[in-house]
Design brief:
Elements lengths: L1 E5 L15 E4 L4 E2 L5 E2 L5 E3 L15 E4 L7 E3 L8 E4 L3 E6 L6 H8 L2 H10 L10 H5 L8 H44 L1
Parallel strand pairs: 2-8
Antiparallel strand pairs: 1-9, 2-5, 3-4, 6-7, 6-9
């Protein structure tokens, strides 16, 4: 139901190139503070004479960070259209059969505490823990009907939107109160 691909292995260190042929997704491009969203505006470019089409990301893919202490799934959305985009080797690229698996649901379920506990236990290594593809394949996920998957993904999206609006409202309220306090203080000292 889901193909699992490996990310692009850079042979001689990552050399970014503003005029490069491909965008590249690195761990720094995932916003951990914002539900692990992919920040496509900040993607670097690389140049490659090799054919990288087998590593090309598609909207609806899921990136899973398999190396490091943070293990999470990120839904790929809104990719730049001007060039192909590839993900580096420390990501697994999950490509679900969208007739059976909703990508947003799959990313959500991988990020749930139960799945995260399994992934933490299955990771090996002390300095830079990593997860093998074989260990990842052993992650068991209960898959409801596609309608329920979509409902879960939609509810999660609404929850994310609500949280974002709440943060924005709190920030604006703080700014307003700070400005009001300064105004009152300046009036007293005038």
């Amino acid at each position: 139901m889901t193909d699992i691909l490996s990310g692009y292995q850079v042979r001689e260190g990552l050399q970014t190139d503003p005029a490069g042929t491909h965008f590249v997704v690195q761990a720094k491009d995932i916003d951990a503070e914002n539900e692990h969203r992919l920040n496509v505006e900040g993607l670097d470019r690389i140049s490659s004479a090799r054919d990288l089409s087998s590593y090309a990301l598609r909207n609806g893919d899921i990136l899973f960070l398999a190396k490091g202490r943070r293990r999470f799934a990120t839904l790929v959305e809104s990719l730049p259209l001007s060039s192909e985009t590839v993900a580096l080797y420390y990501f697994f690229i999950l490509r679900p059969n969208q007739k059976k698996i909703n990508p947003a649901f799959l990313a959500w379920v991988i990020n749930q505490p139960e799945a995260q506990e399994y992934l933490d236990r299955a990771a090996s290594g002390t300095t830079i823990p990593s997860l093998t593809k074989q260990a990842f394949l052993k992650l068991e996920i209960s898959v409801p009907s596609l309608d329920k998957q979509i409902a879960i993904a939609d509810l999660h999206q609404l929850s994310r939107r609500e949280a974002s609006l709440t943060r924005r409202l709190e920030s604006q309220r703080t700014e307003y109160l700070h400005a009001l306090c300064r105004l009152l203080w300046e009036e007293e000292n005038a």
